[in-house]
Amino acid sequence: MRSTAWIVLLGSSLLIAHSTQAAEPAKPAARPVIGDLLGVNGHTVQFRPKLYRPVCKLVRDYHSIEWDLGKETDFVPQFPFARNKVNWETVYGPWQAEGFVIDCSIMFPHTPQDKWKDLDRDARAYGEKFAKFFGPSSEKKLVSSAEIGNEPGHYDDAHYRRLFENMARGMRAGDPKLTIVTCAAVPGKSHKYAKSLECVKGLESLYDVINLHSYAEVEGWPTWKRSYPEDPKIRYLKEIAEVLAWRDQHAPGKPVWLTEFGWDASTKPAPKTGDFAKWQGNTETQQAQYLVRSVLVFSGLDIARAYIYFFNDSDEPQVHGSSGLTRNFQPKPSYHALAHLQKSLGEYRLARIREAKEGELYIYEYEKPGQSGERVLAVWSPTGSDRSVEIEMDLQGAALTKAERMPIAAGVVLAEKIEVAGGKAKVTVSESPVYLWISGVK
Question: Would the pTM of this model clear 0.85, i.e. be above it?
């Protein structure tokens, strides 16, 4: 199948091909509004909820099991305190107070699979204790969901399945309302950064959400070069399609969350020596464009959430070293672009894809639930070459009320002056999306 057709099929989210022997998929849920789709990865005591709330209301935390248990897996946590004396109410309480919905990725990078005193018993006990204290049925209701593992590549498949099954059983017993999420997973073989979905096959009653990570990599080491999100030559969107196809066949109706995606954008050159001497990043403007366009493309897929990696950085020219929305907690262009997206489309969901022409033009139409006749069109060039072109766009009988370009600075509203004649608008299409508010849509 040609890549243009593939993108259109992927965008429809209902036409992704899968095995003819697949289970009959459940009726797809309504697409989420942008505000319920977009999230950010934070990190415990470093995350500043007031700062990031204009961007999103979903936050994912990397919650280390070693903080809670130390090196003794049979230790009984004394929540709200972790064993290292961190008070989880002090950490998550302010996030919750700002209106964040919290997902915990429970990690165990420093607990080897053969160092559990009793893997089955201790994993179940921890899961139950965690759910009882943090879950939606608890007094504080600090956490709405929990992932069993982030990228647990240091566990073999058999040990991960045992850990997953027992921790999930404990969570179900501790709080049936807690949403249980897999670790980063792939349909094929397990690798360093993801476990095979075969690890949870047959355990559908013990998990609620399938989780994956995807980055727009052209190649890994030694450059870690990343492309633009719509690039048909990379696996970025194809990885998502493959997980959706596996879900349709083996776990119909389960939501899929993309819990990591992003771009590095450092102001510094790569170091002259060392592991990152050949590292290639993107510009800050590209980071802003590619994150916003990713969210728009994701809104047309059958995924329920998408979390940006990362919240903050220190401007390190290396992989994952400059992927923050802020740098030293000062907003970068991506922060302003996403805050504008949230303000403009946070209450809107995708109504239809008007155009999805590879290398030329994307036009996505958004509607606000319960509001008829008014739409917002997001229009952009799906390229990575700083392309800009003027087009004549048929408004299909609607009236243009305002237009704004994606901003990359604080307090800037980039109003677009668009000429409309004979029901057609002359629009400058660039790699920074332009938003058109229209009324009188039939």
Answer: yes
